[in-house]
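User: Please go through the entry that follows and flag anything odd:
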Amino acid sequence: MEDSHLMHTDWQVLLRGARVFDGAGGPSAVEDIAIADGRIAARGPGLPPGRAERVVDATGRWLMPGLLDIHTHLDLEVELAPGLPESVRHGTTTVVVGNCSLGTAFGAQRRNGDDPILDCFTRVENMPKPVLRKVVDRIDWHTTGDYFRHLDQLPLGPNIVPLLPHSMLRIEAMGSTDAAVTRAPTATERERMRTLLRDAMSQGYAGLSTDSIPFHYLANDPHKSERIPAQHASWSELKDLLDVVRGHDRVWQCTPDAANRAKTFLRFFLTSGRLFGKPLKTSALTAVDLTHERNTYKLFPIIANLLNSRLVNGRFHFQVLGTPFRMFAEGAICPIFEEFESSRRLMALDIEDAAGRQREMSSDDFGTVFVREWHDAGAVSTFNRDLDALHIERAPVPEWCGETFGALHRRLKSFQSGDVAAARSEPERAALADFPRPLAQEGEFLLHLFRRYDRALRWYFVVANDRPEILRNLLFHPHLLPGFNDSGAHLINLAFFDGNLLTLQIAARESLEMVAKAVRRLTREPAEFFGVDAGRLEVGAQADVVLIDPEALRTYDTDANRRMIYRDIFQHEQLVNRSDGVVAAVFIAGEEVWDGAGFTPALGRKRLGRALRAG
């Protein structure tokens, strides 16, 4: 080896002795990685330490490209905290924004009292309007090109990959939210949509996001009973727009209509090169193993295999979440309650409007309708209504914390039958005595809890992905893709920031070869699909690098490391994950931003990440 005392230090950092998974999917190897001027300068065994200003001993660590989060709603947070710390701490260095037809690509779009971002985001992503206003009030751009220029000026942590959101595109072309949900676009407006989309594709947007989820409603009067604008588009409008996306070889991000599965299945055929001359890259939400429909998971590989077959000639994948889909609720404040006509009235109110919820729940018809809907076995449902599947996390009665609604319901029935010993304390006795008598149905039981405690009652349930072996098979199916984490959405309901780490954890239980495959699926594969410069450790690539402690990863428990924290940027609580120690270091553009225990001063202050242009 060369004498280090005689050498010029032309590398800023040398990461020595790590097991390197480079994202290509091949076998890992113990190597060194040198970083200079924000890029990978050299890699291989035995690189000379004397050439580096800083040498990091990475022995025993896994080194890989920064991970991609392919489905986020961080469009809003990036304006308040451009470092995106809650993603970075879990090894994420690239995020896709503008999903589900929502985003800020056209600015605030406030015209004549219209406030589309508040109108669309509030209920779909279950975000308080004061949080959204903090973002919208500072927006100063009006075009898709200006949005890219704005992102170029932010001190970004992770790289940002924008999709063009269909709901916002309709509003922009048709002039208002009202027009976009009450009438069909004119021929001129249809052409305007195509022109705006072509411009965005030329500017480097990764594709178009649309939405069909039947529980996505607007939040402002007079259209609280209307779904968001993208859902009002005709088949003809959608096909015309996707012809533009197809022509630029960009991505269509789409969501299913759970109430009309046949229609959703037929729409997926828009990926077909056989039918439309050229395959359309399609990324669909989401392959899941539902807890209340135990055979549904089998359909996703079958559909994806068909759409990618020679017969159809598509380029299609379903996105997959790498963890059990655990959703939290506070009283009746939960996205799943948009599916009931009764509780939809509660979701249409501002989250802070406790008095309004009480008025609605006390109205003459509310209870009757809610109980009927809860017990409607024939209704399309997104969750398991078994009371034993619904767990209480926080309640005014201490004894209830940690048990299921089912256990509480059975004890209530015993108490109402005369067993006063069923109450374990005086507070519980008073709470059980407060229930109406007789309590005939489970729906009435829940209705009383929601009326009596509102958001003071916090509970959760697992929607999907609770069977490890089935989840593993979904994550590693060739036509399904991990990396869906929904980061930045549903502040108090979801926390999947660590979803990519959990995919690595599943792989690590099998072999290093499976880890290499997982790294590829979380880095290079999605980067290539979205057409962006990320997910690589080749010499010359931007040095977005993550170091993982494999032993800490092996023992990491996501359920034990979920936290509700108060975030000053939102002036509101948020549910987050804490995988501290699993990710030993994160470098973005060669700059260390996370050291395993905390953030460095560079994050959010220094421009590191890029607004990535597709193509």
Observations:
- Residues 1-6 have pLDDT under 50 and may be disordered.
- The first strand starts at residue 11 and ends at 20.
- The longest helix spans residues 187-203.
